[in-house]
Amino acid sequence: MSAEATNPEAHPEAPPELRRRGRTRLDLRRLGRAALLGPTSRHRLPDAIGHVAEAHRAHYPDADMSVLRRAYLLAETSHRGQMRKSGEPYITHPLAVTLILAELGAETTTLTASLLHDTVEDTDVTLDQVRAEFGDEVCFIVDGVTKVEKIDYGAAAEPETFRKMLVATGNDVRVMSIKLADRLHNMRTLGVMRPEKQARIAKVTRDVLIPLAERLGVQALKTELEDLVFAILHPEEYESTRALIAAHAGERDPLPAIADSVRAVLREAGIAAEVRVRPRHFVSVHRIARTRGELRGSDFGRILVLVGENADCYGVLGELHTCFTPVVSEFKDFIATPKFNLYQSLHTAVATPEGHVAEVIVRTRQMHRVAEAGVVALGNPYAMGTPDPAADPDEERVDPTRPGWLNRLLDWQQSAPDPDTFWSVLRAELAQDREITVFRADGGTLGLPAGASCIDAAYAQHGEAAHGCIGARVNGRLTSLSCVLSDGDTVQLLLAHDATSGPAAEWLDHARTPAARLAISTWLEAHPGRAMSTTTAARAPLSVIGARGGGANAVADLPDAPVRLAGCCTPVPPDAVAGFVVRGGAVTVHRIHCAAVAQMRAVGRTSVAVHWRATADCRVTLLAESFGRPHLLADLTEAIAREGVEVVSATVEPPVEQRVRHSYTLQLPDAAGLPALMRAMRDVPGVYDVSRV
Q1: Is residue 546 scored above 70 in pLDDT?
Q2: What is the phi/psi pair of residue 148, to 5°?
Q3: pLDDT beyond 90 at 151
Q4: What's the CA gap between 186 and 188, in Å, rounded?
Q5: 213, 286, 635, 676 — which has fewest CB within 10 A?
């Protein structure tokens, strides 16, 4: 992008340790002269991109460099005469961005687009020229990273530019790869800016670009961006962290000796492995210091073990846990369960006999490449596919690298036409840095941020139809919509058939995803006063008493004794029953498996034989459990009436988290009709279970 920057060597805030530990910085002044004056022939690469070619060939030895030569010549010619604020020729910026990507292992198309990424924005080159010279893919990527015109969008230009880039990223992740490398180079060379502008750019980098780098798995860019932002936004804490690292540099570091011990153990076990000591970057040291207080010598780095195969990772783990004392709480298996950003490794910590505790990361070399470069390491995600000549050229391509969070972002941004809303919601979305996967009842999956509730799952699966969601089952058990989901849960969402149903205002308290929050807020604004209430003030149960039917149709073998059916289990023919004499000489009749039967026998109640009359009518009490909605009681009563059953009494308990319990005492003309009656009650929208009391 248009970079107002200076030489990184002149950047007073740039951490010198970062420069020493990182790759060798290029002399941009020398590069600038080479860009303008360097010798080039028709068939050789210009000297100015020799570093790019060397880095690219390290990953792609057979790459065709001619397209890079043509891209460089177009970029150098179009940017000629433009200077950065530091005084270097502008061409040094796209060269530096392209070198960053080449070192990460980006393929040729990405590097070509990177060289050209500012030509359409800052020169007279048009997208049609780029397309004609380099093809549709390069043209699409260049267009994706080109800013919208500030003259057209005004203050909304920055959020609308990010919206455009994110939509383009949904179609090609290489767009965001270039944007991240572009921002890294601009952050490295930010020293010429006014302090307030440095802070503004650093805040956007912290809130948007660093989370995007994390989600795309580009750790090499993310960690350096974090350190550069840290130096600008928190200079005092940065200086104290730098002092900690400097003090540690003068002390004896136990990690090299531990690494030697690990090498010896693995050599003896016959496991071919490369063992390195990886220093922590500034922000990582700062976080550890805040968590642990006083730092130990082994806290300033970690041990990295690289092997050839997945199985070797577990072999290394076994040897480490056998020969050292493992810190069990520190073990994490990101190979069996990779992170949502493609990251895979085994994490553990071991204690040595000397009392040092070292964190160890075990991964294959391919895992290491992906851990450092993320989606950049995957090359061209479309190279394996054969283009479909019948496909609509305007239709969105399917990107095998597109993660669930990006799908969610692309969905909800369509409902946020206001740039300010988009910008604030985007930052909130990116602040959620963990992902879970839940399974749908139909066998599909949903990717959700950690902490998501059933409400979020409903909107992720059903969109606006989730307005009518009245409940959910999680792992087969009924639960409230506010239930927070865990990774691996199975969720079944229950929707009302009533088209007028809508969300409750309280749902906003439990919705984590922007898609859910935007949909709920939009509905509430469009339907003031019509939101469902999931909570209600405590009140007495509502009772409806109807005309009572005749006596019970059970007969006890005790002459003249009154008989009544127990309300606890409401037996009906042909239930197996038992009778007991109670106070007043009456006989109560229970189902044989009722808990009260054992209690009666325990207290010595007289048992009486009971049989059913020949008449088929009976009385029964049913419990209907449902989700609260308007007209539910009327619909249930109507369903009961359609079965020809008389309601003796009904009790409705107050709703609790939108769940309602209805108790009905019913007089059936025929006990054989009880199963059909219970099915009819279950078919009423909102009712999820009907059982005998």
Answers
A1: no
A2: -75, 160
A3: no
A4: 5
A5: 676
CA distance linking residue 381 with residue 399, whole number of Å: 7
Residue type for position 501? S
Annotated active-site residue 657? The verdict is: no
pTM over 0.85: no
The one catalytic residue in 9, 121, 133, 653 is: 121
- Residues in Cβ contact with 353 at an 8 Å cutoff, skipping those fewer than 6 apart: none
Compute the distance between CA of residue 276 and CA of residue 189 in angstroms, rounded to an integer: 30
- Cα separation, 632 vs 687, in Å, equals 9
Which of 103, 122, 224, 227 is catalytic? The answer is 122
Question: Which residues does residue 325 pair with via DSSP β-bridges, in sequence order?
Answer: 351
When the pLDDT of each residue in the chain is averaged and rounded to a whole number, the result is 79
Which two tokens mark 593?
Answer: 């498996």
- Beta carbons of 310 and 364 less than 8 angstroms apart: yes
DSSP E strand boundaries for 317-395: 325-326, 332-333, 346-351, 357-364
DSSP character at residue 357:
E
Q: At what angle do helices 219-233 and 195-204 cross, to 10 degrees?
A: 140
pLDDT greater than 60 at residue 395:
no
Residue 492 CB partners (closer than 8 Å, separation 6+): 440, 441, 472, 473, 474
Q: Is the Cβ–Cβ distance between 307 and 273 less than 8 Å?
A: yes
Catalytic residue list contains 122:
yes
Handedness of CA 613, 617, 619, 623 (dihedral sign): positive
- CA torsion through residues 635, 641, 642, 643, sign: positive
Q: Which residues of 19-48 are buried (b: 16+ CB within 10 A; e: fewer)?
A: eeeeeeeeebeebbebbeebebeeeebbbb
Work out the number of other CB atoms within 10 angstroms of the CB of residue 11: 20
Cα 15 to Cα 175, 197, 200: the distances in Å are 28, 19, 19
Report yes or no: 203 and 233 within 8 Å, Cβ to Cβ: yes
Average pLDDT of the residues in 660-668? 83
Under 8 Å between Cβ of 509 and 625? no
Task: Return the number of other C-beta atoms located less than 10 Å from residue 60's C-beta.
Answer: 17
Distance CA 214, CA 203 (A): 16
For the chain, the 3-state helix, strand and coil shares in percent, each to the nearest 5, are 45, 15, 35
E-state strands within 23-152: none
Q: What residues pair up with 626 in beta bridges, in sequence order?
A: 660, 687
Burial 175-196 (b: 16+ CB within 10 A, else e): bbbbbbbbbbbbbbbbbbbeee
Contact (Cβ atoms closer than 8 angstroms) between residue 184 and residue 95: no
